[in-house]
Amino acid sequence: MHTKSMVAVAAGLGLLTLSACGSSSGSGDSGSGKDAKTVTLVSHDSWAVSKSVLKDFEKKSGYTVKVLKDGDAGQAVNKAILTKDNPQGDVLFGVDNTLLSRALDNGLFQPYEAKGLDGVDAAYRIDDRHRVTPVDRGDICVNYDKAYFSAHKLSPPSSFADLADPRYRNLLVTENAATSSPGLGFLLGTAAQYGDGWENYWKKLKANGVKVVDGWEQAYNEEFSGSAGGKKAKGERPLVVSYASSPPAEVVYADPQPKTAPTGVAENTCFRQIEFAGLLSGAHNTKGGKALLDFLLTKEFQQDMPLNMFVYPVTDDAKVPAAFTAYGPAAKNPRTMAPGRIAEHRDEWVKSWTSLVLK
Q1: What is the pLDDT of residue 9?
Q2: How far apart are the C-alpha atoms of 144 and 156, rounded to whole Å?
Q3: Among candidates 212, 190, 214, which has minimal Cα distance to 75?
Q4: Mean pLDDT score of the chain
Q5: Distance CA 47, CA 24 (A)
Q6: Residue 309 — φ and ψ, nearest 5°?
Q7: Which residues contact 143 (CB under 8 A, 6 or more apart)?
Q8: pLDDT in the model for residue 26
Q9: Per-residue pLDDT tens digits for 104-119
C-alpha cells in the first residue's frame, strides 16, 4: 500500500501507469553476472514493505529486489498475460481469487511449493498444483462516514438489502466491476448473496442512485466523505466500497490519531479476497524468484505486511496489529465464492453488470 495516499487499502486500484514499466528492459535476460543477483517483482500499485525487512531479505539471500508496479490488479494481470513469453519480471504479486482463473488458464505461472506453505490456513491454499502462493487476505466491504449518519440521525446500513433502501438514496459510490478489484469483489459479493437474483438487486441499487467510478482511489479519496482524502476533496458520498481494514488506516495515518475510527464497516456487505504471488513461467531468474516467494511467507514479512498494505496475514504464526482489532476487526461472515464458480461466470457477469449499470 502507498502510505501517503492509502492506495494500499485498496489492493492497488489506480489507473495503469505505463511509466512504471519503463525500466523493465534488462530485468534479467541472462543467467549469469549482475542479473543473476537481481530478482524482479511485478505487482499492482499497492505493494509496500518496510525498508529494513526488505534489506534483511536481500542481505540473507544475496539478491537485490527490483519492483515494477503496473497499475491495478486487473491491469497488472492482463499485462502479464500479454508479455508472458518475455515477462517483465520473475514473480507476480497481487493476483487475487476474483482473477486467479484468468491467470492460471493463460499459463502465467510455473509450479513451486514455497517454504512455509504448510503454515498457511488450508482455506487459502486453493491451487493444489502450487502455481500460486497465498500471501494475504482482506475483506471488501461497504464503509460508512460515522459523522454523516450521526448528523442526519440515520442508522448506517449493515447489509446489501439496506443499500437499496430509499433512506440511503444517492449515498453509495462503488468502483467499476470491469476495471477495479474491489468493484469486482463487491459484484461477486452480491452474486453470492442473491444468486440468480443479483441483476434485480443491481437494478434496485441503480434506481437508488448508486454512483460508479473507475477505481478505488477515486471512490475512496475523492468521492467518499469519510476519508481524510475525501474530506479534502469535499466528497459527498458517505458510503463507499472499500475494505474492512480501511478504518484502521484512517486512524494510523491521522495526525493526531483519533481515539476511534471516523469510519465504520457495514459488516454484512463483505466479500473475502485472497491475494497470491507466483513464479512467472518465463522467469529469467527462477532461483531468485523462488527465494522471494519463500520470503513472502516468512513471519518477518507477514507481520510487517498489515501496516504497510492494510491486509491480513495468511500464516498461522503471524500476529495481527492491535490497530486492526481495535479499529476494524475482520468481518465475521464474509461472502465467499468457489474459484470454479468465479471462473465460470465472472466475464459474463461483468458484461451483464456493465450493460445494466453503466448504460
Answers
A1: 40
A2: 7
A3: 214
A4: 89
A5: 17
A6: -115, 0
A7: 220, 224, 226, 239, 240, 241, 242, 243, 246, 247, 263, 264, 265, 266
A8: 36
A9: 999 999 999 999 999 9
pLDDT 10s digits, 97-156: 998 998 999 999 999 999 999 999 999 999 999 999 999 999 999 999 999 999 999 999
Counting other chains too, the contacts that 161-170 makes at CB distance below 8 Å and 24 or more residues apart are 162/266, 163/205, 163/208, 163/210, 163/239, 163/266, 163/269, 164/201, 164/204, 164/205, 164/208, 165/208, 166/208, 168/208, 168/239, 169/208, 169/209, 170/208, 170/209, 170/211, 170/237
| Residue 60 backbone phi and psi in degrees, to 5 | -70, -35
**CB-based contact 98:188 (threshold 8 Å):** yes
pLDDT in tens, 172-185: 999 999 888 899 99
DSSP 85-145: TS-S-SEEEEEETTTHHHHHHTT-EE----TTGGGB-GGG---TT-SSEEEEEEEEEEEEE
Residue with cell 499497492: 46
